[in-house]
Each structure stands twice: as structure tokens, then as C-alpha cells.
Design goal:
single chain, alpha+beta, 3-stranded mixed sheet, 4 helices, elongated
Amino acid sequence: MGDRTSRISEEMRKEISSIIMNDLKDPRMPSMVSVVSVNVTKDLRHAKVYISVLGSEEDKKNAQEGLKSASGFIRREVGHRMQLRYTPEMHFEIDDSIEHGVYMTKLINETVKGDSEIGEKE
């Protein structure tokens, strides 16, 4: 990714996150939605927005549906705030990396706890 594209991607991530937190009024949206990253194509026509939702599979599905229906509003708001010549069309994808990281941390902690208990017995 070029330098300009990466700067636009990062700025879009901040703006989309702010819009989701403060401006969306969709009742389907769970409270724990965060924008992990945004990848913008070089021609600025499309942007993949990776979101993380803490909650059940139903919460994830509802969040994705809510964002899909609000994508026009989000796109317009991003266009006003960033003053780009062309505002990319947004595609929202669920990113499970944070959830996976929490799971891995839990496994590591359980292993360390098990090792310390074995050390105490010896």
C-alpha cells in the first residue's frame, strides 16, 4: 500500500469508529463494536472495513447487517469529514483476531498456572 493510501486508511478508521460510536442510532448495533482496520484500494473506490464485535454470533450478525444498512450514511459522513474527491464504497467484514487473542491469552494463563502448581508439588 502506498503512503497516501495508508494515511487515508488510518484516517478513515478513526472517522468510521467515531461515527459508529457517536452517530449511529441503529438498535441492532451491539455496544461493543470496534473498527480494527481499513484497507483502501489505490484508486480510492473501495474500502474493506474490518470490525470486531465482542459478543455472540447473533451480535456479530446484527452488527454486520446494521453497518451494511448504514453504509450510505457512514460513507456520506466520512466524505464530509475528510473532504476527499471520492469517498470509497465500504464493505464491512468481521475480524475475529481480537477474540482469538483473548482465547490464546486464556490458554497461556491456564498453562502457566498448571506449570506453577506442578512446581509447588515437587
